Amino acid sequence: MKKTKLFAALLLLSATSMCAYAENFDTQILRAKLPSYVDISAETEIQEQNINPQTGNLESCFSSVFTVKANDKLNLYLHAKTNTNSGYDNAFFQKGENVYVILSNIDHKPNSSSIADIKTGSATPENNPNAIAYPVMGVVLGGATTTETKYNSAKNQYEFSVNPGITTATTTVSPSVDSSTYSYNDRAGTYEAYVTLTDTTT
Question: The CATH number of the domain where 194 resides is what?
Fold first, then answer.
C-alpha cells in the first residue's frame, strides 16, 4: 500500500514537473520587409529608320518595346522628349483624337518655337524647321496588365498599371509624316526623340 502511494506521488510530481517545463517558452518572429520592385528594360537602345526626302515618310513603322518585371501592382508612365536649342521639350502631343511624336534634328537643333508651332494643331511647315511629327498608332500591352493605356494630354504621357509578373509595352509609330511638319526647310541630318517608360509621373 505504501509502495502504491509512493508510486502515485512520483507520477504526480513527474507530471507536474513536465507541465511546468512545457509552459516555460517564448517565441521570436523573424521579419523582413520586401518593398515594391520594378525592372524596366528597352528591347534595343536605338531604333533607326530612313526618312524619304521626297515625302518625309519613314521607311517603316517604329516599334518601341519595353519589358517590365514587377513584384507588385504598379502605375507606369510612358513619355517622350526631343531636343531643341533651348533644351529638351515634350515630344508627345495630341491633335484631335490622335497622339503624335516629334523628332528633332540633332545636327541642326530646332528653335523651341518650331516645337510650339507643331503643337498648335494648325502648324505650317515654314514655321517648324528641323522638327518632324509622326502619328503614334498606340501602346499595346501584353502579359500581367491590369488596365488599358490612356493618354493624359495634360501631362503629355501614356499611363497604365501592371500586376506582379512580366509585361511588355509596345509603342508603334506610323511611318506617315504629318505633312504640316515637313518641307525643304528641314535640314539633312539625324532626327531623334527619346521615349522613356518609368514608374515616376511627369
Answer: 2.60.40
